[in-house]
Amino acid sequence: MAMTENTEALVVAETGSNEHTSYVDWPAIIAGAILASAISLVLLAFGSALGLSLTSPFENEGLSAIGLAIAFGLWLVWVQVSSFMAGGYVTGRLRRRLFDATEHESDVRDGMHGLAVWGTGVVIGGLMLTFGATGVLGIAAGTAGNAAGNAAAAAITELSDEDRIGYAVGSAFRASAPGETDPTDARADATSIIANGIANGEIPTSDRDYLATLIAQQTGLPEEEAQARADTLVSSAQAIAEEARIVAERARKFSIVAAFVAAASLAISAVGAWWAAGWGGRHRDEGTVVPVWFDRLR
To answer: Which residues contact 110 (CB under 8 A, 6 or more apart)?
Structure first.
């Protein structure tokens, strides 16, 4: 009786490494983005403390405005680049490698995960600034310069409609010579004349003469001395306005430079995140041992 031996082939399906739904490892990306955000928040708080220690509320004391701006820019660049590099490295180290690609492709995927960390961190930072979750850090990194420039420019170059109408009405009802006027009303009238002249860039001769007459009537000074005092008042007001314009212009330029520095530092940090993620991926593949303080306690 012939016997037939049946041989069954055992097929083992390889699972795990080639079965995936996406090349994007979101847990690693989120971990890196959270770490980068935490590091940047801590360093910005530390930098704010250093900045406050270098400034002074008194004039001609502490670090100058230019020096403070340079220090702030350098610190911002260092904070962003270092925090995103740390987050990128962690993501590259934690990313689960899928052995279905060449070494070059794996390195590219690591780098792209670093860019994903950068993008996620930028979105988180933008949301924090938008909703004011960063407190004084948001103010320092946000619209302080713009607000100062806009407020100063508005105070100098523009009058409200009510102010302009009030000046026009006052001019229409102005007598050839002021009579007995309450000092408060006289001061308000003079202030309106000065404000309108500063807004228009010039105080007409008729307004100057009326100011001199108003001063003479209120103070009892001779006409020549009252005219000299009126000229001094106009010169002082113009000097104050010019100084305010200079401050507003400096604030505007500082805001422009700060915006460019922020954009440049973000671009540099994107490159740093790509490189650090690739570095972390190589350490993951090579099984590089991290420093001794991460060793398991024995």
So the answer is: 92, 95, 277, 278, 280, 281, 282
Residues 33 and 51: their CA atoms lie apart, in Å, by 26
Q: What value does the mean pLDDT of the chain take?
A: 74
Residue 290 phi/psi, 5-degree rounding, is: -75, 170
Return d(Cα 194, Cα 167) in angstroms, integer.
Answer: 10
Q: What is the DSSP string of 87-102?
A: HHHHHHHHSPPPSSS-
- Cα distance between residue 166 and residue 170, in whole Å: 6
* Residues 189-223 as b or e (16 or more Cβ within 10 Å = b): bbebbbbbbbbeeebeeebbebbbbbbbbbeeeee
**Tens-digit pLDDT profile for residues 279-289:** 998 888 887 77
pLDDT tens column, 6-38: 444 433 344 444 555 678 889 999 999 999 989
- Cβ burial of 78 (10 Å; 0-12, 13-18, 19+) is middle
